[in-house]
Amino acid sequence: MTKHRASDAEKEALEKYLLQFLNIEKQFPLLPGIGNEEAMAGLMGIDTDELVKLRELFQKNAKEAALELLKEDEIADWVDELPFEDGDTIAAVGDSMTDDLQGWFSIFSYMLDVAKPDAKFTFINSGVSYNTSSDALRRLHRDVLSQNPDWVIVALGTFDSIRPDISPDRTLLPLSETWENLNTISSAIQQVTDNPVIWITPPPVIPGLLDEMDLFDFDISEKDLFSVREVIAGKKGYIVDPAGRRMGNPPEAWYYLSDGINPSLSGHTNTVRELLKSLAKSIEN
Q: Which of 38, 66, 238, 274 has CB atoms 3.0–4.6 Å from 111's, for a disulfide?
């Protein structure tokens, strides 16, 4: 397929960081060969069986995290309080934190399948790595609304807030544009379902770690993320973690990958825990 083969260092980077977000099929769904695993593996410089094994590893991690969560007594209680009904389609639109093969939505999906095996839920993971709210809005109909979901979980805002190195005096999207995009997303979702939108706020970042990543040429500040959380907190629907403290206060590094932005498996587990608690407590009240 290709003469280029990933070096040992590149393979290590794929396994420890990159591959869980390299779901190229989502970014270019109309390419004729996009469903060809051999072609996908060739782009990454690895064999097809290596690609399959690595993706299966991340999925295995998510399944194990789901099973560990279900061992907690309060988790089982919260699951019993969830508003989802048999046959519901549950979609999530977000960025790399949602797209992650061992991310919060994968853990959440596996957990519900185990806890409610007769419910026959359909899950749609419409996270695309590094999407802004503008990116998500652009593909919302094709990837989410056209499938008539009963519930939509929106987890956006982190990458609206980046400050490019070439222009650190501005965020990539002005806060007013983030506000307008999220309003439009909310209105569009309400055209296909009567159920309230579920909003997950962006977590904080670990200062300094991002500077050590050669892949990125931007910064993200807590001040900008705080402003996005305030916008989300004013929305109608369920608000998950409005203060952005699910990774600790201040945030703890072990809940993150090496970039200080994307959560580790433990960080994603915290997001699922907060999601369950927010839904259950809101319904109780």
A: 66
